[in-house]
Amino acid sequence: MGRTITEKIMAKSAGLAKINPGENIWLNVDILMTHDVCGPPTFEIWEKEFGDSAKIWDENKLVVIPDHYIFTKNTQANRNLELLKNFAEKYNLPNFYPPFTEKYKGVCHIALAEEGYTIPGTVLFGTDSHTCTSGAFGLFSTGVGNTDAAFILGTGKIWERVPESIQFIFENKLPEYLTAKDLILQILSDITTDGATYQAMEFSGETISKMNMDERMTLTNMAIEAGAINGIIQADDVTLNYLSGKTCKEFEIFTSDTNAKYKKVKIYDVYSIDPRVAKPHSPDNGELARNLKNVKITKCYIGSCTGGKVTDFVNAAKILKDKKVKVNTFIIPATKRVEESLIAEKIDDKSLKQIFIESGCILVSPSCGACLGGTEDTIGRSVDNDIVISTTNRNFPGRMGSKEAEIYLASPLTVAASAITGKITDPRDYL
Amino acid sequence: MKSKIISRVFVLGDNVDTDQIIPAEYLVYSLTKPDEAKLYGKYALSGVPFNESGLPNGNIKFIEENKFVSLHDIIIAGKNFGCGSSREHAPFALKMAGVQAIVAESFARIFYRNAVDGGFLIPIESKFKIKDKIDTGNLIEINLVSMRIDNICKSTSFELKDLGVVKPIIEAGGIFNYAKINKMI
């Protein structure tokens, strides 16, 4: 029987010739990523458990990217940034990207890719559930808590259960009114938020081959929303082009065997998919955008690891060009590099930034922002009975701030179209 | 590991996510400074919509006003408990609130790992859907040897799933103790 890409990467990392889904194995970790929320407690646990003998297994493999609570007056949040800084100085960490310096990046999952840490065939763990994003580069990546991260920090190893895989094949080229967000929202509606618990979600097919890395990361980012251990897309020329000049490491590209065993195979023709929205309060509570056209909104939010990449803003700008927004619309680039691209990227001689400013959007500095609510002074945070349409990945009760708020998740195209009308709007009305 | 846990139970629904268990605004507090760490107990389950807090009737506070610890040491829930973020603050908050065990139809992976590897509490899967057969406030006994749960109030009893491959880690009290016992570190 053949093996899946996930099984092959895990077997290599564990140094085992044969592994079977359901087994617990010990992996050798290539990269450990942490941020400002989970970094300080991870380092505390590591110091406490390893005591005087505490030694980081490999400083070059530890990446610290503060991104959650950056632009805030909150004392405890700022204390976390200070704790990270002190730790990085004490241990002379080479891969630390502190805020308010030239090195600051923004949202960790996108920064990992931009900085070339997402190497095909490797194993990447992070103290954030959306660490599965990096799987877009044909690697095994997944989220863990502070204790597991502290264990990795001292040993370079961690146990993991070998998952069964579900294959999602998308056929045909994506039409201009759809984005990767519509595809993953379709999957979530179909398999629900625990439809892939402890399983790998593997994405393939013509649609995926033609997608750029931004879009691929939107898919793998939301694998966790189905409970998956990881999301993965085989590396190809698109991957190699993206990584070109970002890393000098040699790597191995793994592919699933044609006779690999899958728990399930789901095949979608993208022409049968329409722009989708996840209604409150769950990413699997799906509906067609056009069926929600009477839903009035109070806020639009375009940002985060899943919805704040260059391609997301190009899509939003296509719709917003020469139009005015009716409700407060927040533009939060995931990273500094994305923020710079808003000036460099143009549609008919107008930069994306210019398009957003002219349409009346509010531009915010890169960070996780209000995607997870943040501290009380976070720009774009939902208040009272806000009704928000957002390109982010979660709409649980209270997720973006107020417990009374209602969050709708959608593609940047749909969010931009909704910003113009003040109601949930199918983007085809503006394309 | 204890062989039995006896307590009043708090019953929740399906898909209780980590934002409900501990809303993100509280994650700024230290997990080790005692005066801040106890706030995690105070705010545990504070994000659960109030009509779903303490089923079947809801509208029950998990933590009473001005308290930091719950009257309920056991939680019973439906499927996919702990879905969402990787925040270890979630099982930590429940532990600070006094929770010793959670019996759910299924758990989300990261919450489950965090509960086990951090040694915070015992996540146990039920064999059947039991959340509709037990009411918040019922006195419950979990037997970790026979893997049964008895509802002392209603004289009913249900089977639980075996703790499986992570049992040695739970028995050791977390991944670090497990690794030390097995001379891995």
3D architecture notes:
Chain A is α/β, with parallel strands linked by helices and 431 residues long. Chain A has two domains: 5-248 and 261-268, Aconitase, domain 3 (2-Layer Sandwich), CATH 3.30.499.10; 277-430, Aconitase, domain 3 (2-Layer Sandwich). In chain A, 30% of the residues lie in helices and 18% in strands. In chain A, the strands form five sheets. A seven-stranded mixed beta sheet of chain A has the order 12-11-19-18-13-14-17, with helices on both faces. In chain A, helix 6 (180-191) packs parallel to helix 8 (213-221), helix 11 packs across helix 13 (352-359) and helix 11 runs parallel beside helix 14. The longest helix of chain A has 16 residues, at 75-90. Chain A is globular. The model of chain A has no long low-confidence stretch (mean pLDDT 97). Chain B has 185 residues and is α/β, with parallel strands linked by helices. Chain B has a single domain (4-181), classed as Alpha-Beta Barrel (Aconitase, domain 4), CATH 3.20.19.10. Chain B is built from six helices and seven strands, in the order E-H-H-E-H-E-H-E-E-E-E-H-H. Chain B has a seven-stranded mixed beta sheet with strand order 4-3-2-1-5-6-7. In chain B, a hairpin with a 4-residue loop joins strand 6 (148-151) and strand 7. The longest helix of chain B is centred in the first third of the chain and has 10 residues, at 34-43. The chains are: A alpha/beta (431), B alpha/beta (185). At the A-B interface, helix 2, helix 3 and helix 5 of A face helix 4 and helix 6 of B.
